[in-house]
Amino acid sequence: MKVLANDGVSQSGIDALEKAGFEVQTTTVAQDQLVDYINSNEINVLLVRSATKVRTDIIDNCSSLKIIGRGGVGMDNIDVAYAREKGLHVINTPAASSGSVAELVFAHLYGSVRFLHDANRNMPLEGDSKFKNLKKAYAGGIELRGKTLGVIGIGRIGQATAKIAIGVGMKVVAFDPFIEEVDIPLEFFDGQSANFKLKTVSKEEVLKNADFLTLHVPAQEEYVIGKNEIAQMKDGAGLINAARGGVIDEVALVDALEKGKLSFAGLDVFENEPKPAIKVLMNNKISLTPHIGAATGEAQDRIGQELADQIISILK
């Protein structure tokens, strides 16, 4: 059995698959050459992340394929229903990267409330000549403790984010059209634990009460946060998106930042990846990362191992 990890896979995943008798290839094949490569090499399992698209051309023309695997949560780059109709197994790793994404959300939050993203731009340029000016400019930071975090989408990643927020001492309000109540367990280093029950509320209530808002939703056709939703938010609120590009109206976001309706945003994903809008990239009120939510060594190890376990279970 042959596995092509076209967007890469962790060494832990490779080791597990090879131990089970699979041949693992990590060649990155161009999108328009994938069909020929899969057929000529008789690939049985195609593993992707977000870069490679698995559409009907691959599904229809690669008879050796048995499994399509996505290292991560969202599968909008795969024609999942069609693949399953054609008898292919489609797998992903919904739990493996939750903690890493949640920590990145808080990296953006902590950095933004203390202006780190902007200070790190300006200190190398003016730190030696305008130190006092910069000190004054960045002196109005605020604490997260005691503030309210609004969570749109309280699935695995939303829950992991809520867990950190509770540990920080924040209040959490959440909206999810499919979930009424969740348990948020907190485990501590010394074996102690605590459990918090979180009942979801309306989207409007979350928007109205959140000091900071974080999105954890799949890709969808319409904006989750657009001009109307921003208008319902608190003046001076912050907004974080480490979910999917296109769930926030970036034009409305930039306008809200320029007018002072929102104080900051943190974006790990963008409407126009891999070429985000210049107005977004150049705005000094936006903390920016290049879609790295799951890009930790620990998460990639978990993803590779989880994919390997599923593949071995299906084919062995």
UniProtKB/TrEMBL annotation:
PANTHER family: D-ISOMER SPECIFIC 2-HYDROXYACID DEHYDROGENASE FAMILY PROTEIN (AFU_ORTHOLOGUE AFUA_6G10090). SUPFAM superfamilies: Formate/glycerate dehydrogenase catalytic domain-like, NAD(P)-binding Rossmann-fold domains. CDD domains: PGDH_2 (cd05303). The keyword rRNA-binding does not apply. Residues 109-293 form the D-isomer specific 2-hydroxyacid dehydrogenase NAD-binding domain. Residues 5-315 form the D-isomer specific 2-hydroxyacid dehydrogenase catalytic domain. It comes from the Bacteria. Pfam families: 2-Hacid_dh, 2-Hacid_dh_C. This is D-2-hydroxyacid dehydrogenase. Belongs to the D-isomer specific 2-hydroxyacid dehydrogenase family. Keywords: Amino-acid biosynthesis, NAD, Oxidoreductase.
